[in-house]
Amino acid sequence: MNIRDFREKYWRYSLIVLILGLGALLVAELYLFLGGVLGAVTIYILLRGQMRRLTARGWRRSLAATVLLLEAVVLFLIPVTLMGWMFVDRIQDFVADPQAVVGPLKRLAALVEQRTGYDVLHGDNFSSLVSVMTRLAQSVLGGIVDFGINLIVLLFVLYFMLVGGPRMEEYCRRLLPFSAPVSVQVLREVRTIVRSNAIGLPLLALAQGVVAYVGYVIFRAPEPLLWGVVSCVATIIPVVGTLLVWLPLAGYLALTGHWGAAVGLGLYGVIVIAQTDNVVRMLLQKRMADTHPLVTVFGVAAGLPLFGFMGVIFGPLMLSLLLFCIDLFKRCYVDGQPGETLLAAEARGSREGG
């Protein structure tokens, strides 16, 4: 090896080490804002088509970006903020006056003991329950603060991504370790996965939450709006999902002597709420990529510790992208199939299936 080749390799590997070192340092220091950056990337992918149409009509990019930013605030950020504020309000009430929650729990435990003869809150159970609820409330409040900070970061980053979108996309495409045709198809597949997770999961949660809320109102369950929102969140749990909400509510109605409402809510949950999940999933699968339930549950389990509340969306999204990259590596490099041929065939198959 001559001195020139040695210097070239030295410069190359030194630059790689420098990039990785500085990148790791910045990620470690800006970790708290990572959710906001990922949120901006996700919403940008959802809005990029509208941005192209507006600029094609002669809109300035700054004006179009401002309009789409307002759209994101109205359609996404305000509903999510209202949901978060509802939980914050309840948690603040509990932190300020734990007896406001503990009292009803005692009365419910007394009802259970009266009906079944079993003392739910005997011994250390009661103190352990209060301790767990206090820690959980404090953790959620801290997560809400981080969520608010990340919302500001999201809006700030999203604006500049919308303004500089084409150059940013071209730069990212050139960085991908694929040929130009494969890179274009990979980015297209990534957009499909993002739409499936960022639109499909919230739509499914919203549909089941609304249907569940209607049932809670009809059968006069306590706090129907609160439990409707909880039902939205519970949809991320495969198989059981909203069952974890409406079944205990039906049991509570039965314990309080409202047997007709309890039976009605139980039947409504089995016939209407549970079937809503199947119907909405079937409709979404015709328009978007199908996300396996296990990807959802493990993605959420990984995303919540990393990104807090935003991990409900970003966790399954990152896991889906990881599985896609692993599958692409296997087919292109392990199975030896040409990437261009493979991805082009998949694109034709998806168009024919659609």
Notes on the structure:
The chain is an all-alpha fold. It folds into two domains: 35-175, no CATH class; 181-354. 85% of the residues lie in helices and 0% in strands. It has 13 helices and no strands. The chain has helices at 3-29, 34-56, 61-96, 99-116, 125-163, 165-175, 180-218, 224-234, 243-255, 259-287, 293-307, 311-334, 339-353. Helix 3 runs antiparallel to helix 5 (125-163). Mean pLDDT is 76; it is low at 348-354.
What is the topology?
Blueprint: H1 3-29, H2 34-56, H3 61-96, H4 99-116, H5 125-163, H6 165-175, H7 180-218, H8 224-234, H9 243-255, H10 259-287, H11 293-307, H12 311-334, H13 339-353
Helix pairs in contact: 2-3, 2-5, 2-7, 3-5, 7-8, 7-10, 7-12, 7-13, 8-9, 9-10, 11-12
Global outline:
elongated
Number of domains: 2
**Percent range of helical residues:** over 70%
* Through-space gap between termini: 55 Å
Beta content comes to under 5%
How does the major sheet shape up? Answer: none
Assembly status: single chain
Quick one: how many beta strands?
0
What would you report as the Rg, rounded to the nearest angstrom? Answer: 25 Å
SSE class: mainly alpha
Count of helical regions: 13
What would the average pLDDT be, to the nearest integer? 76
H/E element sequence: HHHHHHHHHHHHH
Uncertain runs are 348-354
What are the salient characteristics of this protein?
single chain, mainly alpha, disordered C terminus
